[in-house]
Amino acid sequence: MKASQLKQTLGAAEQSCRASGARLTEKRRNVLAVLLRAKTPLSAYEIAEQYGRDYGEPIPAMSVYRMLDFLADENLAHKLNSENKYLACAHIACDHSHETPQFLICSRCSKVREIGIKPEVIAALRDTVEGAGYHLLTSQLELDCLCDECGRSAA
Ligand SMILES: [Zn+2]
Ligand SMILES: [Zn+2]
Ligand SMILES: [Zn+2]
């Protein structure tokens, strides 16, 4: 992400926090910036390490977890449950409302794309799950994929 784009996205994040009565403190903002600069999702430990490199002050992983919880509550970051890693929301600078995100995860290069699967597809999935006697706990889907680039080089 380019520096100007990063600045704009962080500004939008600050605004959306203010609108929901929350505060994007400097450290939370820095953690979000680490995620925005990352090309692939990061674990809390990787975030702590990168934070130390970027800002010259170490930060304990425990505080990173707390800040990630905050960022996730504000829909500024998401947790990939399948990988136990985090990534910045792709819609921070958008003004439409945020629905349950779904993720396409490239199994080769780990690049992730946040998408919105059609609600009727999710509803059909939920019905199928319920038909099998289970309850879907989350409609956040994380799908193993090959991205276009990796698909091309594999062919
Ligand atoms: Zn999102
Ligand atoms: Zn958007
Ligand atoms: Zn890929």
Task: Indicate the topology.
Layout: H1 3-19, H2 26-37, H3 44-55, H4 61-73, E1 77-80, E2 85-88, E3 102-106, E4 112-115, H5 119-131, E5 142-145, H6 148-154
Parallel strand pairs: 3-5
Antiparallel strand pairs: 1-2, 3-4
The chain binds zinc ion (3 copies).
The site of one zinc ion (ZN) has 8 residues, from loops.
Q: What this model shows, in words?
A:
- With 155 residues, the chain is an alpha+beta fold.
- The chain has two domains: 3-88, Orthogonal Bundle (Arc Repressor Mutant, subunit A), CATH 1.10.10.10; 100-154, 2-Layer Sandwich (Dna Ligase, domain 1), CATH 3.30.1490.190.
- It is built from six helices and five strands.
- It has helices at 3-19, 26-37, 44-55, 61-73, 119-131, 148-154; strands at 77-80, 85-88, 102-106, 112-115, 142-145.
- Strands 4-3-5 form a three-stranded mixed beta sheet, with no helix packed on it.
- It is globular, with a radius of gyration of 17 Å.
- The model has no long low-confidence stretch (mean pLDDT 95).
- The structure holds zinc ion (ZN) (3 copies).
- Residues 75, 78, 89-91, 98, 101, 114 line the site of one zinc ion.
List its traits.
single chain, 155 residues, alpha+beta, Arc Repressor Mutant, subunit A, Dna Ligase, domain 1, 2 domains, three-stranded mixed sheet, 6 helices, binds zinc ion
* Strand order of the biggest β-sheet: 4-3-5
User: What's the structural domain tally?
Assistant: 2
Termini Cα gap: 29 Å
CATH secondary-structure class of the largest domain: Mainly Alpha
- Which ligands, by name, code or SMILES, are bound? zinc ion
Profile the largest sheet.
3 strands, mixed
Mean pLDDT: 95
